[in-house]
Structures are given as C-alpha cells and as structure tokens.
C-alpha cells in the first residue's frame, strides 16, 4: 500500500448557515458537493454541527449506515422508530445501525443554549442488518494522554460495537506530549480530526478543526504543542 497523506484545513470544509443550524462538512453533504471530497474509505460523513435552542432535525429515515453522534457541548434529544427516547450529553457517544431502515429525530434538549455535536456516518460491512442502538458514557473510564476507544468492531474497552472493521478513538493531551497512534488493522486508513489545540502528526501541523488523512502508515507520530483534543477515525479503505 502506497504511503500518502492529505491535510484538510478547517477553512476548506463545506459550510451552511440556516440560522438554527450552523454546520461544517468534511465530505460532500446536502448542498455542499466536492467531487474530491465524497468519502475516505468507509467514512462517508463527518458533520460538525451547532444547533440553536429548541431546534433540530425532525423525524427522517436512514438505511444501511452506521450513524455515530458525539455531543461536544450541551444535550441532544434522540427519538427513533425502535422506541428509543434519550438525551445524549457531552461525554457520551451514540451509535445507531440503520440497517433495513429506521426513522429518528435529533433535537437540542435546551431552551436556552446551543448544542454542538459531531455526526459521523460509516458504511457497514453488511447490508440489511436489523436496526440497533447503543449509547455509552465514555467519561466513566476516561484516561488522559492516551487514546480512549469509543467505537470498535468487538466492543473493546466498554466501547460501542460497530458493524465495520473500524475504530473511533478520542484523546485529550497535555502540552508537550509525544505519542503515537498505531493502526488496529494495517490495511486500514486513518482520519485524524483535531477538535482543539495544536499538534503535528507525522510532522504535519494541525490547528483547531483541521484534519489529516493518512494511508499506508501503520505508526503515526504525534507531537503535541498545546493542550489538545483529538478524534481518530480508523476505517477500511475499500
């Protein structure tokens, strides 16, 4: 596999502002279309959303997609056709396997404050699975300056199980840390998304909301400049 990487500066993401919704798209989505930014392997969507109080996404359908929501601040009220009604808070992660078909809504749970969250779509490894839902508080076993697994194929480290050979991990680093991320599967690619701070990955500088795609490199070296929060999405490329 050829070794290559590509930086996606925050400023080059697609963006929309509907008043009630401000969203930045790492990949083509809705009215934003970039033929060079359709997906990264099995990673189809990474939306960085901010939703106004009492607003959100009314009931709508999905099928054959693994849908992951990670609140960054505030609470997100979830309802779906499987009978789940819950609020997802910062420090929690949710996965919904749409499978043969599911309808859901995602609304800001606050009357006063915005909710900020990431929504991530990953293609499943099998189609037409039975829909399923999972939610976990990853802060219960959180460790600083290491990668905490949020989503995995096996449910390791109290993570949520995904129908794909994919891992989502998050880390919060103190300044001046040196660490490496090693692929769980050497055939995968990895998408680094810097939520806050400043660091280098394989000597490439990232600042807040920049991303880096890496293919063909099993060990990725991270040099943290300032206190930082990093999301890692490791996915099959084919």
What features would you describe in this structure?
This protein is an all-beta fold. Helix content is 0%, strand content 55%. It has strands at residues 4-8, 14-17, 21-25, 43-51, 56-62, 66-73, 75-80, 85-89, 92-97, 102-108, 115-122, 132-137, 148-152, 160-161, 167-173, 178-182, 188-196, 198-201, 204-207, 211-215, 219-224, 228-236. The chain has a 7-stranded mixed β-sheet, with no helix packed on it. Strand 2 (14-17) and strand 3 form a beta hairpin. It is globular. The two termini are 12 Å apart. The mean pLDDT is 97.
Notable characteristics:
seven-stranded antiparallel β-sheet; mainly beta; seven-stranded mixed β-sheet; 238 residues; 22 strands; globular
